User: Fold this.
Amino acid sequence: MEKLLIDIDEVLCQSTFLDEMNKFLKTNYKIDDFTEYYIDDALGSDENKQKFYKILEDKDLYKNAKIYDGAVKTLKKLNDFYEIYICSACVMFCMPEKSGIFFKHKFDFLIKNFPFLNPDRFIFTGAKNIFKADIQIDDKLSNLKGDAKTKILFTAYHNKQITSTELKNANCVRCDNWQQIENLLLKRS
Ligand SMILES: [Mg+2]
Assistant:
């Protein structure tokens, strides 16, 4: 079976990080208001960021995460044809020593919403590029530098400006949703 490496944030779901940020700032930002990866820049000063991240220590950002349409259904189908590994970074650079909660919350999220996946194949790391897979799906182009045969950039607020030429040069294809991934990966298996 081919190995499939799949990211969590902005690929399987959107966490409630932005909702918490809106509560904190008393704003009403939508995710597509942002074009840069680090949306917490909207918090402004480092002092404000520290205050906000202190609040996050008691929050589960994955309990009510918005799972993307078709993600569960498609992964269930792909699970019959591929060895699926979920690979996600969990250490927040603003609170590295408190980041254990993100490992737990992401693990719980996967167990609850994707019960058919094998938890032995959950990988929590920021060093995604050391893992070798046949196919990799991520929303961050810099995470797709490895030598997977098929590299899929999942469209997200921060990567829409990446051109088809840039994608081609990076040996990546773009998918906007899980239906497109299903069409791409199930058709060939
Ligand atoms: Mg991601």
About this structure: Residues 7, 9-11, 138-140 surround magnesium ion (CB under 6 Å). Residues 100-113 form the longest helix (14 residues). The helical segments are 17-25, 46-56, 71-78, 100-113, 164-169, 178-186. The chain has two domains: 2-14+66-186, 17-56.
